[in-house]
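Please complete every field before forwarding. Incomplete forms are returned to the sender.

SECTION A: IDENTIFIERS
Entry label: holo-263
Bound molecule: zinc ion
Molecule representation: SMILES string

SECTION B: INPUTS
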Amino acid sequence: MKITFLGTGAADWDINSYVHGEEFRRYSSALVDTELLIDAGPHIFHFAENEGQPEILSNVKNAIITHSHWDHFNPEIILKLAENNPDFTLWGDAACLRAFHKRLGEENTSTINFVELPIGETHDVGGYMVTALPASHITHDPAECSRVYLIEKDGRTLFYGCDCAWLPSETWAGIVNKQINLMVLECTCGELAINDWRSFDHNDIKMLENMIIVFRKYNYFAEDVRFVASHLARELHPDHATVAKAMEAFGATPAYDGMVLEV
Ligand SMILES: [Zn+2]
Ligand SMILES: [Zn+2]
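SECTION C: PREDICTED COMPLEX
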């Protein structure tokens, strides 16, 4: 599996202030190979159009959604993906469908294939074995269960956890014996926001450090496991190079828009 980061920012990045060539993060989203999209926020086509990869989303067959916050789920973008590919399927909590209805009306949802991914279950999503596990992160929909995803293919395992503060016990129990090769964890709050109120819904850099120290101490996951941080807030982190240096100290790497990693 290959992962391409289409966006690595939290919801405080303003797309109108994007200047090509300058440091910028779009709303967080990632593409696995060319087919499986994780989160479909409003900026993904901006990535395609401005980063010299106009066709990067043309083969997306499935999108798995972590939660219905607008930086992760945009109904108009879902329609555009479905227009590009008649076999397109949307996967996630039923809250995604409710948000879709609310925004665009029920008549438009008839064109969308939606499959609910219940928490704790593993489903074959276009050849990827995808498990949804709970995230500690709530939305305005009280019935929604935000989730993180485990994605397995060809003996390799990817964990994607944006947005999620720390790891709930159920999620830890679901991954502790997995041979995870690449773990994408969120780090909304950086060194400019230690002990921040947002740390009940998001990780700060100290939480990230503590988790990774524990993972490494007990050799959890695969021998070659790597830890990557995404969903960095514009106002809560210094520049990328400074963040990279801070994270290097505990064995993590901050992602950037356009970063490609082999899982
Ligand atoms: Zn977010
Ligand atoms: Zn969120």
